[in-house]
Amino acid sequence: MNRILSGALLAATLAFGACTTTAPPLTRPAAWAPPEAIVAPSSFAGVHGLAIDGKGRLLAGSVVGNTLWEVDRQSGAARVLVNAPEGQADDIAVGPKGELAWTNYLVGALRMRDSDTAPMRVVAKDLPGLNSLDFDRRNGKLYASQVFLGDALWEIDPAGQKPPRLIKKDMGGFNGFEVGPDGMLYGPLWFKGQVVKIDPANGAMTVIADGFKIPAAANLDGKGNLWVVDARSGELVRVDLASGRKTVARQLKPSLDNLAIAPEGTIYVSNMADNSVEAFNPATGELRLLTGGKLAVPAGLKIDGNDLWVADIFGFRQVDATTGAVRDVFRMQRDPELEYPFAVGLSATHFALTSWFTGTVQLVDRKTLKTTGMLHGLKAPVDAIPMADGSVIYAEIATGSVTRASGPKFEDRQVLASGLGGPVQMILGRDGALYVTEAAGKLTRIPLDASAPLRPVAEGLAMPEGVAQTPWGSFIVAETAARRLVEIDPVGGSRRTVADNLPIGLEPGPGMPPPYVPTGVAVGSDGTIYMTADRNNALYRIRPQR
What number of other Cβ atoms are within 10 A of residue 394's Cβ? Predict the structure, then answer.
């Protein structure tokens, strides 16, 4: 009897031996069916800034995807125009001579190129959270703002020779702005619910309209109107510049991010939570979906019965494992406590949503969907598991440790393991121990009762991320650097490939942690494997063959 089979039978005996049942335990399948997408792929990885260039092309930026895209305005077909990592774009602007400029939000840089064939150049750097930008088309002056990781407005030298000139700071998040024909800067204040006009010469600011929930971007239509997208309400609003009067032109979904107005008047709107770009005709009220998806950037994954729970970075989703139907649990900006979740943990009563980007773990009651606890100030937490006793176990990649937090406000901390080579994803095994993937190439067993030392179950893995246990006791691990799923015997560590050539392993941008967007893995009670795909935003199912 081979070691995988003997290990599987042993695990199955331990798991099911104490139960009385007429159904025999599932055994290791002979093979696996090819992966099938139960949630279809989509373009981007969260879509943000939009612009229309002199050639009439609709351009779209993705920060997490580190790419700048072109979207066909008729068919909606999308293709990468500037690849990663240089293409990371929160916003895009077109200059009077056809120059193209975009903001590398996570890097804090502004890039430009004079044409499609001209070399790229960095004209500003060391500005964390560099977000929105636009040219003054009368004279070529370039302006950019910092939002979220900073709060300032700058004039940028397009030649990159002069240092940026500070125009104004502490405005309240001057996001998604546009330079008007009068040279004034028109845009929203994200944190103040206002749209304003700023004089770039002296920073003087005038409120045009207020009462928005989260105004994300504003554009002029040349007819005396300022069009505003509200991220929280999902409204596309027309503001009369002369009076400040607001009119809701169209109700869209929340998580709106930006807009662009074509010369003929069509308004294109982006939504970060479903990778969508919609075209709105203000004359007729017609709305057309150009491109979109059901998931934004699917990452961590867990299963409970027929429910798949997906940490989607710009949302938290429930997916029907049979039909692939997707339901919003939380959606970015609509639900203000959501903190860009990269991983999800599950107990009978709680979800744990983890974000290395914000350094948080959010505990959510599964019945009420209310946040019951929040851990802040963690050092790049990558996964967390809510426990039955009310504690939470979390892994920090920056410290290489796994910690249990308990007590009032989770102030009591017990380090369960340290010196790990980049913990990524965790599960509680059927034997009660914790199993953790390490970016350095390991699957490691951590006994929670300290009854034994840490033990490597498997080594030499290629950037292992998501992990799940099968009903017969083996482990399924996503080796993202090799773009495959493997099955690992918990006794001897031997392995076999479940599927390869998978759309996983999205490369991180500069300065980002190596797992970046973790590939999530879950296994159903019938042995079916589910996997998120960060290269095309799909969710796959792989059935066992017996």
Answer: 28
How far, CA to CA in Å, does 156 sit from each of 92, 112, 150, 171, 526? Answer: 14, 11, 16, 18, 58
Task: Classify strands 31-32 and 544-545 as parallel, antiparallel or unpaired.
Answer: antiparallel
Per-residue pLDDT tens over the stretch 41-57: 999 999 999 999 999 99
Beta pairing partners, 52:
58
Distance CA 238, CA 42 (A): 30
- At 13 the three-state DSSP class reads helix
Closest CA to 466 of 431, 435, 498, 512: 435
In angstroms, rounded to a whole number, what is the distance separating the alpha carbons of residues 173 and 128?
Answer: 13
Whether the predicted model's global pTM rises above the 0.90 cut: yes
Cα separation, 315 vs 310, in Å, equals 8
- 108 vs 288: CA distance, rounded Å: 34
Residue given tokens 């107990």 in the structure block: 347
Q: Which residues contact 194 (CB under 8 A, 6 or more apart)?
A: 172, 188, 207, 208, 209, 210, 212, 215
pLDDT digits 0-9 by tens, 307-363: 999 999 999 999 999 999 999 999 999 998 899 999 999 999 999 999 999 999 999
